[in-house]
Design a protein that fits this description.
Rossmann fold, Arc Repressor Mutant, subunit A, binds S-adenosylmethionine
Length: about 375
């Protein structure tokens, strides 16, 4: 018998017994609106959020690293052809692209499972959310705000018996114990020991030991990471009832939009680029920019861009010259470079893998364009990242 697999199965069942809140799902549905959208949830667990979203008509995709959690999904998702999910580590796996909405709810940000640097993992998730969204798409991020973490996490040193416990559908009963909590106010890292006691249907007992750790991120951290990833916060709530965020212990819920123009473009400082589009709000220019940003992975096709705004190629070039300040092809290259920059921020990838993840060869033509646009080689760019 694989005790760890039994434990994962047990935990999936118990999670479902304890966690069936719908308030955050209602808020999310309200923010998304009635039109069907493409939604991705990283760390979708047992489908508490995904299933009602699919039932509301949205096309949803989820990813989770825990097979015990995902095992709960098929029964709930029966008949929902607009729901798909995969078993994967969301830190390493490709989230795909072109989504209207990316969801990271239920304080998952602070509970991302990985072996190394909690803070880097949180930042990477936010960058990955930006990479998976189409320009103008939205990121729903709900995390716990801890104004006094020492009170919460040092409290874990008391034995937390009975927080999660019960029997699963195979007759396995169990209980999770957390104890020995420590919190370092300098690093903002909390650690604690945990163990799960399981009793099999035949009375055999097993103890599965583990430990927990998290970087207790601040609101400033999260706002800064969002800004760096090219998000603009449109809404911030202190609760699912849309009450304003007031710095109290509890939820910090953010609804952030991925800016239409990519960060490289905004930061390029070229006169007449993004600021110009904002100022004139020229609808065709904005639409063509959006088209290029969503088709960055494909080869540049001026006819297709022109068709997207019902123009000739010549008219398109004139439009870009007046309202964007660079040729459509250069804009397309900038989009590619920006996506490569995002991938280079993931230090789990080699430079060749970062290029390959964007469909490019690191020794190909884009390397030269990358240097022209950023003033650095990909290796120098990575070395300069904090
Ligand atoms: C608190 S649960 C939230 C589940 C669901 N989002 C909800 O709101 O009910 C956190 C989930 O994140 C998943 N998770 C944590 N780190 C992960 C990672 N690196 N890759 C994929 N899933 C991860 C866990 O397996 C767990 O199912």
């Amino acid at each position: 018998m694989d005790v760890n697999a039994v434990c994962r199965h047990w935990w999936g069942c118990i999670y479902d017994q304890y966690e069936h809140g719908t308030e955050d799902v209602k808020l999310l549905l309200d923010l998304i609106g009635p039109a069907p959208r493409n939604v991705f949830e990283a760390c979708c667990g047992t489908g508490r959020v995904l299933v009602p979203l699919a039932q509301a008509g949205h096309s949803v995709a989820g990813m989770d690293a825990d097979e015990g959690m995902l095992a709960r999904l098929p029964a709930k998702a029966e008949g929902l052809e607009n729901l798909r999910y995969s078993l994967d580590d969301a830190l390493r796996a490709d989230w795909g692209g072109g989504y209207d909405v990316v969801v990271l709810g239920d304080n998952t940000l602070m509970n991302i499972e990985h072996r190394d640097d909690d803070q880097a993992a949180q930042r990477l998730f936010i960058q990955k959310a930006a990479g998976a969204l189409k320009p103008g798409g939205h990121f729903f991020l709900a995390f716990d705000h801890y104004p006094a973490p020492e009170k919460v996490f040092i409290g874990k040193s008391k034995l937390m018996k009975g927080h999660y416990g019960g029997m699963d559908d195979m007759g396995v009963s169990g209980q999770i114990f957390n104890c020995g909590g420590l919190y370092n106010p300098v690093t903002r890292i909390a650690v604690w020991a945990s163990h799960t006691e399981l009793t099999m249907p035949d009375g055999e007992k097993h103890i599965i030991s583990g430990h927990g750790h998290k970087y207790v991120c601040t609101r400033e951290d999260v706002h800064g990471w969002l800004k760096d990833a090219g998000f603009v916060i449109e809404e911030e709530f202190g609760g699912c009832d849309r009450r304003p965020f007031a710095g109290k212990p509890g939820w910090d819920i953010l609804w952030a939009r991925k800016a239409y123009a990519n960060r490289a473009l905004r930061e390029s400082g070229l006169p007449g680029t993004w600021e110009n589009i904002q100022r004139t709000r020229h609808p065709d220019a904005a639409k063509a920019v959006e088209y290029l940003e969503s088709h960055w992975r494909e080869d540049f096709d001026p006819e297709a861009v022109a068709r997207s705004v019902n123009m000739s190629v010549r008219q398109l070039y004139n439009l870009f010259s007046h309202h964007v300040g660079m040729a459509p092809k250069a804009y397309h290259q900038k989009c590619k470079v920006e996506h490569i920059r995002e991938k280079l921020a993931d230090k789990n990838l080699t430079i060749a893998e970062a290029f390959a993840a964007c469909g490019e060869d690191s020794r190909g033509w884009l390397r030269k364009v990358f240097r022209e646009m950023t003033g650095m080689s990909p290796r120098e760019y990575r070395a300069n990242l904090k």
